[in-house]
Design goal:
Length: 448
Amino acid sequence: MDKYIESVYQSVLEKDPLQKEFHQAVKEVLESLEPAIKKYPVFKEHKILERIVEPERVVMFRVPWKDRNGEIQINRGYRVQFNSAIGPYKGGFRFHHTVYLGLLKFLGFEQIFKNSLTTLPMGGGKGGSDFDPHGKTDAEVENFCHNFMMEMYRHIGQFVDVPAGDIGVGAREIGYMYAAYRKIANKHGTCVLTGKGYGWGGSLIRPEATGYGATYFLQEMLKTKGLDIKGKKVLISGSGNVAQHAAYKVMELGGKVCSLSDSSGAVHIPDGLTEEQWKYVMELKNVRRGRIKEFAEEYNLEYVAGGKSWQFGGEIAMPCATQNELDGKDAEHLVDSGLIIVCEGANMPCTPEAVEIFQEKGIPFAPGKAANAGGVATSGLEMSQNSMRMFWSREEVDRRLHEIMVNIHRNVYETSKEFGDPGNYVLGANIAGFLKVAKAMVAQGYLA
């Protein structure tokens, strides 16, 4: 890291102590931007780095709600509106007990570059709460969502900030928040929230988009090596939305999904997930909200309590659960087990040590800001359909999603070549995403 970039990073550490995920994301991006800063000195003159690491706005508020016993509970709500140089803020709400300001700043910062890579006019933002829907009744979740929106409604809008879902925020939560927005604001929120149900403003393919998109990106990575996904052993972590649909698309393309997991442990599927088993997982996780252990017991599969998908060994790793889930030790084991490619489905699921190992061993590694951009890209397509008051067919949305992911891969790969390290997807993604935003900020002056 050169002295100028180091000074920007040190300033972040001093201003935002204890926000470890945010520090990690900023360091990873800034380190790779050095060639771009040298090529375009105007960015340094306009202090783009100093501005891009600082959110334009942070909203934090209390959310009181009543539990099933009628007792008042208090949670914190947040919205980090990071950068709007190329469009309204766009990013999901996360409801999970681990949510705090530093985590959302990391996610919002990453969202800037991810949204830029889609080529759609969307800025970067993120929000959520330390409320955890797991184990709550529908009535409790509805009560919380309504009270969360009591404050949030004043900070969002189709030309201001368009939230979506994330961990802990699925179709149920989006529905409750949408209803609350309609009642509070006295207008439809069709263009305000994405991830809606198809019958009331949602887009086909949106639930599948992140998992499908990551798999499309993986396909393009394999093509650069003259390889195909057919017959490959694919390890997938998680069993939520992203993992479910990545698994389906991998199966559809002929790959073998050999693992799934959740926070309790991991299951080994040596012969590859079948369509029947996939349907069971969908019902287990989306309807019964059960644990992956039940899936292992139903089909007599190996289950490791507290284990990870990576311990089973495979050719392709798709971490689709949460941040920093795959560490250096996991990476070494995967390399020794014959790993050929890593494609992130979650946001920053690989630790810096793991990424370093993959890159040292020459294993292509795709960061989430590029590989999992299919979700927000399809949210952008949902916004387009809402604005036009029309709906596209499933085939049309899937075609557009696939085209976007192919273009993201091409842009990232070509940028890595332009800046001297062909196939370095981290370098390519960070610089390609940064350049569009940075140029817009320069053009709009120091207020951007």
